[in-house]
Amino acid sequence: MGDRVLEQQKAIAQVFSGDRKARHLTLTWQDIDVLEAINKSLSPLVVFTDALSGEKYVSVSFLKPTLHLFNNQILEVQEEDTDLAKSIKRKIVDYLNEKYSDTATQELLDMASALDPRFKLKYVNEDNRGSIEDRLRAEMKNVMENVPLETAATPAEDTEDAPKKKKKKKKKKKKKKGLQGQYSHTSSATGPGHS
């Protein structure tokens, strides 16, 4: 909206100058400076949020790379920024960093981005990489230990037990579908596929 006001600044001034009661609403140079600073600081965020909102599923694994991008590129203070623009950028970055600074939250974000094949350990702090890798190994081992082992069918078993095994497989497929439905239902805030 601020960029639209800046675009139409001359037209707005002309409309207000024709009406004595509304003349005081004409934008001053200070108002224009403030609008330009706000627009310059926030317009990259609009582009970024529009791009993310266009995605069908946005997962928690995007959060760590997004914070990195905000800190190091989009909201990085530039020399040519006005004091107001610098202040706006710093406050946004400080707010976001503080919001996600909790240890448990950081661990969740590290695990999610480490499991995402697009990011892996790229955005995980080097000090935490070892512990994240250890936790991933432990969880994978735990999952493998809890999964019932199925032995491969031998040719002799195929003839007699084939119908029974098909029934078991169907039951397992139903269980998997139930877990997937439960997973997508319980984690709808973060979107499917974040693990």
Structure description:
This protein has 195 residues and is an all-alpha fold. Among the domains are: 1-43, no CATH class; 59-146, no CATH class. The chain has eight helices and no strands. α3 (29-53) runs parallel beside α5. Mean pLDDT is 77; it is low at 173-195.
What are the SSEs and their pairings?
Blueprint: H1 2-7, H2 9-17, H3 29-53, H4 63-74, H5 83-99, H6 103-115, H7 126-146, H8 155-186
Biggest sheet descriptor: none
Count of beta strands: 0
Low-confidence stretches: 173-195
> What is the count of helical runs?
8
End-to-end gap: 37 Å
Elements, N to C (H/E): HHHHHHHH
> Which class do the helix and strand fractions yield?
mainly alpha
Percent strand equals: under 5%
* Fraction of residues in H or I helices: 55-70%
Silhouette: elongated
Cα radius of gyration in angstroms: 27 Å
Q: Multimeric state of these chains?
A: single chain
**Whole-number average pLDDT?**
77
Task: Pick out its properties.
mainly alpha, 195 residues, 69% helix
What is the structure about, briefly put?
The chain has helices spanning 2-7, 9-17, 29-53, 63-74, 83-99, 103-115, 126-146, 155-186.
